[in-house]
Amino acid sequence: MYDFANSGYTTVVLTAIFNAYFVAVVAAGAPWATFAWTAALSLSYALVIVTAPVIGAYADLRANKKRLLLVSTVGCVLGTAALALAGPGDLATAVICVIVSNFFFCTGCDLIAAFLPELARGRDLGKVSGWGWSLGYIGGLITLGVCLAYVSWAQASGQTAAQFVPVTMLITAALFALASLPTFALLRERALPQPWPPGASVAAAAFARLADTLRHAAAYQDLRRFLWCIVFYQAGVQTVITLAAIYAEQAMGFNTRDTLVLVLAVNVTAALGAFFLGNVQDRIGHVPTIALTLAGWIATVLIAWAADTRPLFWAAANLAGLCLGASQSAGRALVGYLSPKARRAEFFGLWGLATNLSSILGPITYGAVSWISQGNHRLAMLITGAFFVLGLLILHGIDARRGRRAALKGA
């Protein structure tokens, strides 16, 4: 249900509505507008990179993932609602609210992921993670659908984007808050507090624990290698999530309504991909499943790069949806599979570090290529495919069974 609750944020704020509103209305279509958007997101991801491992270590020591999850949820909901204050020219307000809301959103993703090994046995991690991701895409679909219905009504009533987009931010925040209630009502914290040195503060103990994890990282070589794999293949995934709407508009000539309809359809295929490949993952193995999805991503990029008609681009977009749900679900499950029991939140903090580093690396690379090539978005998309190729090459050296043995030994 938490995956269901928080997915509306990425769908509405980062992918479909507010990003375009930020560029066209808040920044008035200035040449630097897209850079300002990606810079704000990059700063929020950088903050998460710095804090995620420490928050994870702290959560393990105090066994308070649920309490921290509540704080992150409130922060994201309030930050999203505050985006409604950003009108034409309110650049500072928009940037600050984007940074705050995205920071709390990413922190919440790390914390909820750390509950996964407590809720599923090792052989069922892929299936349960797939349930979460698939339900998440349904949540994003519903939130976007409600917003689209409101936008259609507002446009028919003669309202401008400066009038109706702020309301969609309030809708997104309200649905996030409402749908997260079952999590806080029913989810139990099963972890137990861990000891720390006498007289030391919890913060100092958290830093010491993180340093200890890094010193002994060689014992978890497969997990470490997979985290590097995540950095590269998620760079491609985050680029698609963040810039797909821009690519559709610039390279394919889509308008806003075309893009919203496309995003709605992709959420459906993403939900199906997460659900069905989550079950496949537990049968054929974590690594082969991720390899399959990365091959699908490479095919997606090539089709999108070559597409000169809308049906072909729609095919690429829906293939991306299938791979999107499956690759993210499978990646989260494999991290849980390779993590020792006593360090789950800490290692999911490292997972968050890797995914947020990729969220900086991928979009900035796309933006740099498109800028250097004077707006050649097709070339930028083709270069994005290199991240999936690198991820596949790194994945080749991972032995999931060996990594699982190391995790059980470390538990």
What does this structure look like?
There is one protein chain. The chain is mainly α. The chain has one domain (2-185, 207-410): Up-down Bundle (Growth Hormone, Chain: A), CATH 1.20.1250.20. The chain has 16 helices and no strands. The protein has helices spanning 2-16, 18-26, 33-62, 65-82, 91-113, 116-119, 125-156, 161-186, 202-215, 221-252, 256-284, 286-306, 310-338, 344-372, 377-395, 400-410. Helix 14 (344-372) packs antiparallel against helix 15 (377-395). The longest helix has 32 residues, at 125-156. It is globular, with a radius of gyration of 20 Å. The two termini are 28 Å apart. The model has no long low-confidence stretch (mean pLDDT 85).
Descriptive tags:
about 400 residues, mainly alpha, Growth Hormone, Chain: A, 16 helices, about 85% helix
Quick take:
The protein is mainly α.
Q: How are the SSEs ordered, and which strands pair?
A:
Blueprint: H1 2-16, H2 18-26, H3 33-62, H4 65-82, H5 91-113, H6 116-119, H7 125-156, H8 161-186, H9 202-215, H10 221-252, H11 256-284, H12 286-306, H13 310-338, H14 344-372, H15 377-395, H16 400-410
Helix pairs in contact: 1-7, 1-8, 2-3, 2-8, 3-5, 3-9, 3-14, 4-5, 4-8, 5-14, 7-8, 7-11, 7-13, 10-13, 10-14, 10-15, 11-12, 11-13, 12-13, 12-15, 14-15
